[in-house]
Design a protein that fits this description.
Blueprint (H helix, E strand, L loop, with lengths): L3 H12 L6 H11 L1 H17 L7 H20 L5 H4 L5 H14 L11 H20 L4 H16 L10 H12 L7 H6 L7 H8 L1 E8 L5 E7 L5 H13 L7 E7 L5 E2 L2
Parallel strand pairs: 2-3
Antiparallel strand pairs: 1-2, 3-4
Length: 268
């Protein structure tokens, strides 16, 4: 059974998509697919219980999808074209479909292990992507090929250790890094019995109170992070900023972060 958080994120995601559009069909197909739900749940179990990492399951992947779609709209509203549009190989709608697919499926490989999980994610996601694109673009092979390629680039490129080139794949990097609010670390902290390497990720994430994505003043996208303790700056400087620096979306982002009730520091 889905959690209230999952259901709330699904409603927020679908509210950002035009009814009956291919991107909406892609999102609904992902949301309603029992195999995807089971794969996300198991990936999260391995991530949290076996490996001791933060949430990498259905809530995280839905949050990344919402973040991605929201930022895609902000780029479009500012007149920024996606890579498929610039290459004349697709429309904004196809770019949106690719971003949603990559967001929903990028961490499936955590079910196998942390190392190279982005490659395992692509392997596990490929038949799902083909199945869902068959529903969204049943009569257009060229669109299916383009969306599949960009979605896979977003999946394999979300860890900053592989060069990516498209706006769409770059959006996954930033959206993934923005999911850092304290709820993501709640269960790993509760399960922790003794200190170990990597705990800084859990405790820094636990200090992040809010991440707001909105229209920027000088650039299309503004990311504003509010935290309860200085340890949260680790998430900004060691997780989010490296992802932004590796993303083709970097030129379009303003980044602010700081403690609650204090003036925020501008990083970008």
């Amino acid at each position: 059974m889905k959690s209230p958080k999952e259901l709330a994120l699904e409603r927020k995601l679908l509210a950002l998509l035009e009814p009956n559009s291919p991107a909406r069909i892609v999102a609904e197909s992902l949301i309603n697919d029992e195999e995807i739900q089971a794969m996300q749940d198991y990936a999260n179990s391995v991530s949290i219980i076996r490996l001791g990492f933060n949430d990498h399951g259905p809530v995280h992947m839905r949050q990344v999808a919402r973040n991605s779609v929201l930022m895609m709209h902000l780029l479009r509203d500012s007149g920024i074209k996606t890579s498929l549009e610039t290459d004349h190989t697709g429309t904004f709608g196809e770019s949106m479909s690719a971003v949603i697919l990559a967001s929903f499926l990028h961490d499936l490989g955590m079910a196998i292990g942390r190392q190279d999980h982005e490659l395992f994610s692509a392997m596990l996601a490929l038949p799902i992507i083909e199945r869902i694109l068959g529903k969204a673009y049943p009569d257009d092979l060229e669109k299916r090929v383009a969306v599949r390629s960009v979605a896979l680039e977003g999946i394999v490129g979300h860890m900053t250790n592989r060069k990516i080139h498209s706006i769409e794949a770059g959006m996954i990097l930033v959206a993934d890094g923005c999911d850092m609010e304290k709820g993501r670390a709640r269960i790993p902290i509760a399960l922790a019995t003794e200190p170990k390497m990597g705990d800084i990720h859990k405790y820094s994430a636990n200090s992040i109170e809010n991440v707001e994505i909105s229209a920027g003043k000088e650039k299309p996208i503004r990311i504003s992070v509010e935290m309860s303790a200085d340890v949260g700056f680790f998430q900004i400087e060691e997780v989010l900023i490296p992802k932004i620096n590796s993303s083709p979306v970097k030129p379009f982002i303003e980044l602010f972060a700081g403690l609650s009730n204090q003036q925020k520091k501008q990083y970008l």
